[in-house]
Sequence to fold (723 residues):
Amino acid sequence: MTTSTTLTTARSVPALLAEGEARIDGREKVSGQAKYTADYAREGMLWAAFVDSPYPHARIVRVETGAAREMPGVRAIVTGADVGARYMGCTLKDWPVLAVDRVKFIGEYVAAVAADTPEQAAAAAKAIEVEYEELPALLDADAALAEGAEPIHPDEASYVFVGATRPPRPHYNMQGYDRVRKGDPETAFAGADRIFEHTFHTPRYHAGYIEPRATLVWIDEDETLRVLTTSKNPFAQRDMLAETLELPKNKVVVEPSYIGGEFGAKALTIEEFALYYLARATGRAVKHVRTHADDVRSSHVRHAAAVRVRLGTTRDGKIVAFDLRALFDGGAYGGGKPGVSVLPGRTPKLPYGIHNAQVERICAYTHTIPGAFVRAPGDIQIMFAVESLMDMAAAELGIDPIEFRQRNAAVTGDTDLEGNRFTEPRPRQVLATLRDAIHWDEPLPPGRGRGISLTARHIAGGKTAITVTALPDGTISAVTGSSEPGVGTLTVVQRVLAAELGLDPDRVRVTRGATDTAPWDPGIGGSKGTMLLGRAALDAAHKLQVALALPHDGPVTVTGEGAFVLGPGENMWLNFGAYGVELSVDRETGTLTLHDVVFVADIGTIVNPIAHRGQIDGGFLMGLGVALTEELVLEDGRIVNIALSDYKLPTQRDMPPFRVIELQPGDGPGPYGARAAGEMNTAGVAPAIANAVAAACGVRVDRLGITAERIYDALHAGAAGPA
Fold:
C-alpha cells in the first residue's frame, strides 16, 4: 500500500497541472497498438544472429564460416576480419563492432549472420567454427590495476575520444579517472577530534527493463542508412553510427519507436553497427531481437564497486573533513558511458555543507561484462557507503542519527564539492518532517529498528528544441526528437503547451520525429527531460502567442528552445530526499520484514502528477531490489544467474507499506518551478535499510544485497560489526 501527501503549496502554478494526466501514449499501449522496435518489419527482411565469445579473454586464431555459408537461407556472414578495426562508443570509442583479434568478455560478438528466418540465422551462427587461444583474464578491478598487470587495451592510443582530449589516468587499465578537491582536507583531518573510515561493496545489477534490445536496419534507394532501435538517444546514436561507419550524418537516420523501458542502460545499442554490414552485403533490411537471457548476459550493467569513505569530525559531531575513493569495475569497454570522465555518473552531490573534501573516482577495465549508466549512476554505490558511515559515526559519537545529519546539512551559502552554490537547500526541513512522520522518538520492542538516509540528486544540463504548429482548426501540433521509454515525455510537452496557451490538452498533439525531421534532442537521461522539454514548450508557447497576434494565413510554426547549462560556481538546484524505514529482524533466520517506509522529498513543481508518482514508487522499488534481492553473480567472468527465477527483481507483491510526503514546491529550473523526479529517490533505500538492520539487531551489513544469509552469518558468528 502506498500513500502520498503534499504539504501546503505556496507557489502559483496553472490549475491544469494539479489534474491527473491522460498519457498521450497510454491508449496505444494498453490496447496493444503501440509499436516497439521488435514489432516492425520490412518487405524482404532478413534476420540476424551473432556468434559470441565463450571466454572472458582469448585470442581469435581462426573463424571458419564455409559450412555456415552453405546452409539453407543464409544470405551473408561478416566477421571482425571483414569489418576491420572499427570502434563504437558514446565518448570513448573503444568497443569493436566485431572482435578482430581478441575477445575481452564472455558474450562479445565475433561474427554476424543474416538469413531468411531467425531459426536459420541461429543455426548458421552455431555452425560457424571459432578457434580460440584462451588467455589469462583480469576479472576484478584490483587485479586489473595491480602493478605489472597486462594492459587490457594495448592499442588504446588509436581510440577516438569525441569532442575533447582524453583526460590523463594514473594507470593504463583505467577507463576513466577524476579527483575533486575542496578546501584542505589533509589539514582538516589532522585537526579532527575523531576519524571514521570504512569500505563498502556493491555488486553488478541489470537495469531490469521489460524490452530486450532490438534493431532493424535498411539502406534506402538514396543510400541512406535507416535504423529502428531501442536506443534512448536517437541523435547520439545517429552520430555514433556516422562516425564509426564513416558515413555523412545526413546519410544516417534513426527512426522513432517506443522503448519498453531502459533505466539508463540503452544509451548505446551495439547491434546496428554490425547489421549495417549485413544490409550492405545483401541489399535487404536486417532485423535482430535479443532474448531476455541475451540481454542479461552481455548487455550494459550497473558497475560493481568498492567505496572507501573517511570522515573527520569534532567531538560534538561537526564534519570537518571528508574523503571518498570509489573503485568501479567498468568491464571490458567504456563505450557505453557518455561524458568526458568515462565514469558512472558525475561527482556525487552530497546533502551536507562540507568545506574540506576530496573525492577520487576510478573506473577500471576488466575482462567482464561492460558497465554503463543505470538509474542514478554512481549514486547507488556511493550513497550506500556515505549514509551507512554517517550512522556508524553517529553511533560512535553518541549522537542521534537525525541530529548528526541536521548539524551537517547544507544551508544557504554552502557549495557542493565542485564549488557550485546550493539554491534553496532544504535538507533540514526534509529531516524534520521525516522525524515526525516515522515516529522517530517513540520506543520500539527488541528486534525492531528504525533507520534513515539523506541524499541529494542533481539535474543534468543540456539543450533541446521542439517544433510547434498552430493549425487553422485551433489545434496545436508539436514534434520532438526525444525518445519515449515510458516516462511521460510527450505528455510533459502537451501539458505545458496546454497550460500556457489556455487550451484543453486534447487539442494539443505531440509526436516523435526521426532524426531527419525533428529538432535535435540530447535524449532521455540525467533527470533533465521535464526541465529541458518543458522550457522548450514554454518558449514555443510564448513565440506562438506573438506570432498569432500578427496577421497570418494558414498554419503558424515556431521552434521552441530549451537549454540549461551550469558553469563552475553557479547556483544549482538539487532534489533532497530522506528515507525512514522501520523493520524487524528474526535473529534465528536473519530474515528482515519491512513494516513502514516513509520518503520525504523536496522536489519542486509537478507537471505530470500520475507519472510523477510512478517515478517515485518505481524509484523506491528499484532501490529495494538493489538493497535486498538483486545481484548479478559472476563465476570466472560468466554471469550464472541470467534467468529471472535466479535474478530476483522485486515485484508489486514485494512492495511494503510506503508513504510519500513532499514539501511545498520551491523554485526550480523547469517550467513553473519543476525540478526532477526520475533518479532522486533510488539511492537512499539501501543505506536506510542497512541502518535499520543495525538498529534492530546490532550488525552492520556493508555489502549489498542485505540478504538473510548475510545478516544470519553476522549474527551467528558473534559479530557486532560489518558483514
